Structures are given as C-alpha cells and as structure tokens.
Amino acid sequence: MKEDLLHFIWRCDKLQGRPLTTSTSEHIVIKNPGTLNLFSGPDFFNARVEVGGQLWAGNVEMHLKSSDWYAHHHETDSNYDNVILHVVWEDDVLIFRKDGTQIPTLELKNYISKTVLQKYQELFQYFKPTFINCEKDFAQLDSFLVNNFLERLYVERLEYKSKLIFDLLRKSDNDWERVLFVMLMKNFGSKVNGEFFLQRASQLNFSEFRKTSADIYQLESLLFGHLGLLKGTDCNDVYYLELQNEYDYLSKKFDLKLASEKPGYFGLRPINFLTIRISQLANLYHRHQNLFAKLLKTNRPEEIYDIFKTETSLYWENHFTFGKVSKKSKKRLSKSFIDLLIINTIIPLRFCYAKQVGVDWTDELLLLISKLGPEKNSILQGFKDLGSSTGNALESQAKIQLYNNYCSKNKCLHCTLGAHLLNRNT
Fold it and tell me: In terms of Cα–Cα distance, which of 143, 147, 127, 145 is closest to 135?
C-alpha cells in the first residue's frame, strides 16, 4: 500500500457519512478536505475539520503509520506546525507538535471497505502489467472521459514545457526572438545533441548572430564554429578551411568562447546529421528577419510550412560531412520535422506569449496541434496495442504526458482515469 491510496480516500469523500473518531475517541466531522499539495509540505492545505466539537482550519498530513511523522522529522519542521489532523492507515504511536500539544489522529484501516482495498490491490499487486497498470481495463474506459482528460493532459504538457521558455525569457530580458532561436537550436539538435545545442545557443550573443544573418557564408561559419565543428579535424576541404578562417575572424570580432566539446553523430540518419541541420537553420535565418513576429501571426500549419520551407546551402547538396562528396540532392526540411518544430517550439512559445500578455489562446493552440499528425514511438504503440489509436498530435502529446508523468511513476490515483477505475462500484 502507498500513501496515494490515503490521498484518494480523503479527497474522494470515501469517508463521507461515516461516524469518525480520533484514536482518543473524539468525534471527527470533515467539513472540507482541503487542496492536495503536490510539492513539499503537508499533503492537504486549507482543510476544515471539526474535532471534538471544535472547528479547526489548517493542514492535513498523511502517513501509512503514525511513526512516519518522526521518521520524516516533521516534529522539527515549521511547515508542519499548522497540521490539524494526522490521517494514517495504522496508528502506532502518539504524535506531538513542537510545542508539546498532541495532534489528533484518524486511523483509516477500520473505515475502508474491502471493495476499495480489493480494487486497489488488483490495480497494483495481483496483476503484473506489461505496459501500464490499468491495461486490462483501459479499453473499457468511456471515450468522453478519456478525450476530456487527454485535452487536459496536453495543456499540462504545455505548462511543463513553458518552464524552460520562461527561464530563458528571464535570462534574456524578455527577448522573444532570442528565445525562439535558442529553442529552435535545441530542436534542430534533436535528442542526440539538443541539450548541447541549447547550451551553446544560450551562450551566443543573439545581436551578433543577427548581424551575420545577411551573409549566409558568415552565418554558417558562425554556427559551425560556435558548435565546435571547425576544430580538431584534419580536413583539407576548401569550404571547411574557408569557414574556419571566417570563424577565426568572427570569434575575435565578437569575443566568442570556443566550445569545450563537440556534438555527436551516433544514432543519426545522414539526413539528420547536425551539419545538414545547421545549414538549414542558417538558411532559415538568412531568409527571415524577425522570425518570431512572423510566426506569431500564423494560425494554420500551411503558413508555418511555408515559412520553414528551407534547405541547405549549395555545398551540402553533395555532402553530409566536411570533405566527403555524396550523391547530389536537395536537402529540405521535411514536413514531419517541421511538425516536430511546431509541437516542441512554436506552440509552447505561443502558449507562453499568450500567458505573458494576458490573453487566452488555448482553443486556437488546441485546434492547431489537432491538425498535425501523431508522432510514432513505443509509448503510442503501447496504447495502440490496448485498442487506443492516436489520431493527431494533440492525442500523441497527451499520451506521452500520461505515460511519463503518471503511468510509469505509478501515480494512478492522481490520474483521472485511474481514479475513475478505482471509484467504480465503491
């Protein structure tokens, strides 16, 4: 058993109407269970509970055993001074506040029906899942309930992604164009090099980057050099040497710091090589000034596809790496790659911008992402195997959020779907 079952019982009114008493036989009436706290501190804030005829307002803390209070050192933590009720499964020791007053304790094991325990045990113990805990019941869930929850999960995922964006905004004095550039660099770097690209982009003076954007040759040399791709390679390729010389000039002009490491190629298909992606990004900024302002005005995927209709410079039409000639081909950004940029960069940025200026664009953003096709990965295949196909990017992003933040962490009772399954006929 885990504490989340106690949270579920408390917040879902499983004790409603029962004659409750503390371990010292004082009557308890729950007026308001309070608000679940997902961070550090007591489990429920702002509860209202009547104990022995006296109404108390404050916080509620929960443990499997009363002695966990001392095991977690709450008796010395001022955050727990305002706890008005200790809710436990088993009351094995008296609990006191720092001032020596005893905290009323409610022991749950004699109040919970066998049906609730059985369903909880079925969800977590008797059945060993291959994908998620509720996989044998998932297909029985009402589609209306699932779809509503998926929409909420997607907004939750946007909130999660907004943390990085707001952090970048604080560090750049609210320069949205610069933050867009940093986020694009991260996503052009893909999973293999994304964090490295993010770090190096954050260290680059964006105003200096913009000064080179009129000259694609300078722009490429700046990006290749700043990412450490113009050093430590024994290459006599003319274009490589020219870029290297140009970057030497730019690094002195802009006082640029060299990268201490180099990005990698492992696991990348040639079309996703960072050399190709850097050239495509350079051409994007060569073609578009004030890119964020342009993207802010777009409301349809087709308009975004048109803006990102970019390719590499001529050299990369017959190269994937410096000095190695390959079959000539145009290397444009694919629709699927642009979709990932929309999902991971453009929509999160617009979500954050709307929050900052105080407007609600939620419906517009939900409509935009619902027009994009779903991603393909093992998580979505797992849900498909349960009979839940994924029709668009909104659903795929929501299911990724569901799996990563709830299913894989066994937070089933914090999940609307898991709580619904446990709540049935109980």
Answer: 127
Q: Tell me the domain boundaries of the chain.
A: 3-112, 118-171+337-426, 208-287+297-333
How many CA atoms lie within 13 Å of 133's alpha carbon, on the beta-carbon side? Answer: 24
Share of the chain above pLDDT 90, in %: 80
Cα–Cα distance measured from residue 342 to residue 301, given in angstroms and rounded to the nearest whole number: 8
Provide CB contacts within 8 A for 425, sequence distance 6+.
Answer: 115
pLDDT digits (tens, 9 = 90+) for 1-34: 889 899 999 988 888 778 999 999 999 999 999 9
User: Which residues, other chains included, contact 133 with Cβ-Cβ below 8 Å and sequence gap of 6+?
Assistant: 123, 124, 127, 407, 410, 412, 418
pTM above 0.85, yes or no: no
CB 162 within 8 A of CB 403: no
* pLDDT per residue as tens digits for the range 310-324: 999 999 999 999 999
The SS3 call for residue 309 is coil
Q: Closest Cα partner for 281 from 200, 188, 179?
A: 188
Residues 346/371, Cβ–Cβ less than 8 Å: no
> For residue 71, which amino acid is it?
A
Contact 187, 340 (CB under 8 A): yes
Helices (H), 288-426: 291-296, 301-307, 335-341, 347-357, 362-370, 378-385, 393-402, 416-423
C-alpha 57/C-alpha 47 separation (Å) is: 6
